[in-house]
Amino acid sequence: MSTKLFVGSLPWSASDEDLQKAFAAHGNVLSAKVVTDKETRRSRGFGFVEFETESEATAAIQALNGSELKGRNIIVSEAKPKK
Q1: 27-34 LR contacts (CB < 8 Å, sep 24+)
Q2: In what order do the strands lie in the sheet with 3-8?
Q3: Alpha helix (H) ranges present in 1-83?
Q4: What's the predicted TM-score (pTM) here?
Q5: pLDDT grade, residue 83 (50/70/90)?
Q6: Torsion angle, CA of 74/3/83/73, rounded to 10 degrees?
Q7: Could you read off the pLDDT of 3-57 as tens digits, one per residue?
């Protein structure tokens, strides 16, 4: 079963590929998506990364929460389901 992570405080210049590269060292990334505004197509400053296993996701949280990505310290936590 896959586990989805929330990634916050992303730099505006971060892309899906940047997320993929940053998280790939910690496991099999199924998807990596920076959320963009529908009208302007600019980053909203957060995204989601999905790992194949919970253990890979936990390792990524421990390794990357508070780390730097393109000059900004990112926040990484387990994503909460939509209500």
Answers
A1: 27/51, 27/52, 27/53, 27/55, 27/56, 27/57, 27/59, 27/60, 28/52, 28/53, 28/56, 30/2, 34/10
A2: 29-36, 43-51, 3-8, 75-78
A3: 16-24, 54-64
A4: 0.95
A5: confident
A6: 0
A7: 999 999 999 999 999 999 999 999 999 999 999 999 999 999 999 999 999 999 9
